[in-house]
Write a structure and sequence with these properties.
CATH topology of the largest domain in chain A: Umud Fragment, subunit A
CATH class of the largest domain in chain A: Mainly Beta
Number of strands of chain A: 11
Radius of gyration of chain A: 18 Å
Number of helices of chain A: 3
Largest sheet of chain A: 9 strands, mixed
CATH superfamily of the largest domain in chain A: Umud Fragment, subunit A
Strand content of chain A: 25-35%
Helix content of chain A: 10-25%
Strand order of the largest sheet of chain A: 4-3-5-6-11-7-8-9-10
CATH architecture of the largest domain in chain A: Ribbon
Oligomer: homodimer
Shape of chain A: globular
Distance between the termini of chain A: 47 Å
Chain lengths: ~230, ~230
DNA sequence: CCACTTTTGTTCTCTAATCGTTCCATTCAT
DNA sequence: ATGAATGGAACGATTAGAGAACAAAAGTGG
């Protein structure tokens, strides 16, 4: 799927994102790849984007995001005992269903209950207006608990998650902690540590080493139903 | 399903992808299959593609992707015991849920800004899965302000409103006050008065005479988008 | 809030090497 | 022979690297 250069760049971006949470600038990527011009980086970025490995905000500085990693490349930056065979790779194309601007996305179960998401992949799915999602592969989780209540995310809401391996500081992510517990939290980095912040005064922030936390996606939308 | 050569090539591609994450070039595949021309590889690739075993980006270098492996061939190369022998990772259309239907509901503008809703009926509309709505006529409003923040309704959210003239105590309604100001509030009755409760400690409940308040609908759902 | 500077991303042009595509001749096995 | 598989080579497209000028965003100081 990738050329050597593309692969090299992707690895570098992923590493930097993993370590510092800040995407490298074109200049830095240029240096990392030992190039003397940024234009090459630009083309490589374009190729990676075309292939769905990264996403970016147009005309924004340091706004890269790794969506997936190729086989063989280690995702978590370093050798984590990644218990789950992270089968995440092969992208299943999301096909817009009959109705014009609505998409069916899989509903993977509840989150915050300490269960790895992969475990409970069901057949359920949810129709979501495309306006709520961007590009990329998405899935939905039913929110359980009140740990994000101050972010306006209530028990029973449906969180729409875009698959991603990385996130920037302050984003709300689905984080798999030590391969066992998946939670929805604010992601922040403090020095060499990863901090998972709930949005509820009654709960404490939690600190982890980078290799203990795997980002499985970031919050892209929210659905709530009143009765 | 596959000829010997096709099978051999598929195995090779998968192996390389697994080991390095970089797809082999035609030249490399030629070598691997011990051919003396790339044209043969070209045909084999075409055959594999036709049968859905691989996918590729047209006219792109090293842009192969393995979709599935024939029975017997292990997909995951080395590291992990890839649990599912990946029988089909193809397009995989998602299964529609119960009420798959979608509704286009009009987007009437913002609420909470002191403007009667009717005034700004625009052309905009929003596609919403019917599962989120019940029966009845609906419309959407963009929430402006933070007066309902403690109810998990944030600035910029889209409120899905079901048209109604009445509501029960404690429901969140769109209330038109004295014919001029439309707001989203909890509705409560206290004796002969109507009480509109914000969900924000910084705001005070407001009391009105019944004839001053017209219920224009009740909150039926909520959509939020993260960027 | 504005003007100014720095950082960062975008685009274009050239050059070269790699890569994919195609067509046609040749070989091989029935 | 005849159809299928293979070989060969020319061709065009993509990938890559460099350099520079430009435009847009972010940061700074008044």
């Amino acid at each position: 799927m990738l050329t050597a250069k593309q692969h090299e760049l992707l690895l570098f971006i992923n590493q930097r994102l993993d370590e510092s949470g800040i995407s490298p600038s074109f200049e830095e990527m240029k240096e990392a790849l030992d190039l003397k011009s940024k234009s090459g980086v630009h083309r490589l970025i374009g190729a990676l984007e075309e292939r769905g490995f990264i996403r970016r905000l147009a005309n924004r500085a340091r706004a890269l995001e790794v969506m997936k990693m190729p086989e063989g490349g280690n995702v978590g930056g370093n050798n984590v005992a990644r218990f789950a065979p992270v089968k995440e790779t092969k992208p299943q194309i999301q096909i817009p269903v009959a109705a014009n601007d609505v998409m069916e996305i899989p509903l993977h179960g509840k989150i915050a209950a300490g269960v790895p998401i992969e475990a409970l992949e069901g057949q359920n799915s949810l129709s979501v207006p495309m306006a709520l999602l961007g590009a990329g592969e998405h899935y939905a989780l039913e929110v359980s608990g009140d740990s994000m209540i101050e972010a306006g995310i209530l028990d029973g809401d449906y969180a729409l998650i875009r698959k991603a391996n990385t996130a920037r500081d302050g984003e709300i992510v689905v984080a798999l902690v030590r391969g066992e517990e998946a939670t929805l939290k604010y992601l922040r980095r403090e020095g060499q540590q990863i901090r998972l912040d709930p949005a509820n005064g009654s709960y404490e922030p939690q600190y982890y080493a980078p290799h203990e936390v795997e980002v499985q996606g970031k919050l892209a939308g929210l659905l709530r139903r009143y009765h």
